[in-house]
Amino acid sequence: MTPFRLSALRFWSRAERSRAILPIMNRVCLAGTASAMLTTSVSLALSNPAVQPWIVQMVLTAYPIGFLVGCLVTRPLVSRFGHERAFTLITLISALASSGFMLTDFMPAWFGFRLLGGLAMSALFIVCESWINLYAEQHNRGTLFSVYMLTTAVAVLLGQLLLAVAGPHSPHLFTISAATALLAFLAKFASGPWPALPFVSAAPESPQRDESYGLIRLFRLAPVTVVAIFQAGITNLNIFVLTPLYGAGIGLSATAIVGLVTTISIAGMVAQTPVGWLSDRLDRRVMLLIQGLLSVFLCAAIAWLGKSSAPLLFVLFFLYGATALTVYPVAIAFANSQLHSRHMVAASGALLLLYSIGNILTPGLAAGLMERTAPQAMLFVLGAGGILVAIAACFNLARPPLTTAVARAAGGDR
Question: What's the pTM value of the predicted model, to 2 decimals?
Answer without folding.
Answer: 0.67
